[in-house]
Amino acid sequence: MQIDRLDLVSKLYQPSGWPRVLDAASGVPTSGPLVVDLDPTTFCDLACPECISGKLLNQGRFTPKRLAELAGELVEMSVRAVVLIGGGEPLAHRGTRKVLRVLGEAGIAVGVVTNGTLINQNLAELAEYASWVRVSMDAGTSGTYRLFRPDRKGRSVFDKVVANMRMLAAAKKGALGYSYLIMSRQESDGSVVSNHHEVLQAAELAHDIGCDYFETKAMFDDGHHVVQVPQETLDSVDAQLEKAAGLEDETFQIVNSSTLTSLRNRVGPVQPKDYHRCSVAELRTLVTPSGVYVCSYHRGNDAAKIGDAVTESLADIWRDSDRGIVDPSRDCRFHCARHPSNLELERIGDGVPAPEPGTDGDPFI
């Protein structure tokens, strides 16, 4: 079954995950998460001024031995999908290649969110085992890339990343995505720099590279609220995306994230929620060197920490933890991509007639 990568609600109705989905919908603790976001390290080789995890960077990593153990524990817990992410740059950890092999050979789907600078060093494993690789680019030219994604010396590595993506595009079995965050910044002299004018150019480059999709997203502030943009900026982005749609065919897709849709609908930075427990937290969690958290939105938040994967096994953490420590009505007033999934889980739990589970497809709920 072909499932839209952003249709998270439909993904709940897959047979292999359905028993745990029913438990989560019924308020029963699950036997383990279906999806795990895993930060191998907090270190990163870039110095992006708008990095939402900037305050959490360069504060530790799993040892290669513990990271390999975690991969084995994920297999034992029957996790269906793992996203290697950060935090830091996941490919900067020398143990990530082994994680890709262990998970891939066990039949676990693996997604990778990367800045792309180290794809060449991990090319064989990424090409063979990654279900998808999404590269955070946020620019269509080297000059704009340097403004928003400089390395530690303030230089642009745009050309290097593009070359790495071309190598992966030629060798990959999974999907390759070009991610574009709509960004702007007021400089000290009062001027404003933005990347919104390069959306079309970046989409054309993504198509030329051999990417499978080009995704535009809205920028978040430190509290994960969607940053509002002037109407003229949004109009510019939409006009470019309309032209970029002409690039679409059976091998290339233009993807609009829910955050960009929220900007178009002018829903504002706050997303109210009237439920007090996140059912998705029974199905998806975040594992980092600093702790295990109920979800990626709460990375580094001690109030949402449920264990320490450095010293505890994931099975023990899951068995002993309370995933209900976060109250979405109070603690998650930002835009959450899984809010619709929580509403659907409420419907399932209430016994509202629902479709029979279909066939398995994309496990990244």
TrEMBL record:
UniProt keyword list: Iron, Iron-sulfur, Metal-binding, S-adenosyl-L-methionine
Keyword Transcription regulation: no
Protein's UniProt keywords contain Nucleotidyltransferase: no
SUPFAM superfamilies registered for this protein in UniProt: Radical SAM enzymes
Limits of the Radical SAM core domain: 30-260
Record PANTHER family: PQQA PEPTIDE CYCLASE, RADICAL SAM DOMAIN PROTEIN
Protein's UniProt name: Radical SAM protein
Phylogenetic classification of the source organism: Bacteria, Bacillati, Actinomycetota, Actinomycetes, Kitasatosporales
